[in-house]
Amino acid sequence: MRESHSQAAGMLPFTVPESAYARLLLYAVRRMAAGGLDDAFAAQAMIGGFGVNFRRPLVLLRAFMGESARVAGKRLMVAPCCCGRMTGDERALLSAVALAQEQPEMAHDRLAETLGVKCCVGLLTSAQAVAASFADLGMPLTLALEV
């Protein structure tokens, strides 16, 4: 039992972000990773988080997730939606989005390392758009996620 607990702790080394904004992003990422880009639960979460202004962040997050799947050189580990901890891959994606506008080089490096590719400028652009959509609607991720 202890061995499986330590193995699970190694796969989920980070706690979920304290910020509601970052948790919304994490939940939507997890839902889209599990249920596809058109996942209804992800859309419902975005409606709940943004109200009538949900379309822009939802569409941009779908583009980000689609682009990450397209360019990825390896499979990413994503935890179940109800999990109170995060994988390293999830943390890297969230922190890259949070850094994308202010520190694009660092965000690009983090995305490239996480996805196992040398260059992912298109994905960085998508991350910047997602971060801008959250910030424009009063949910800035740069202050919400400790990197």
TrEMBL record:
This is Carboxymuconolactone decarboxylase-like domain-containing protein. It comes from Sphingomonas natans.
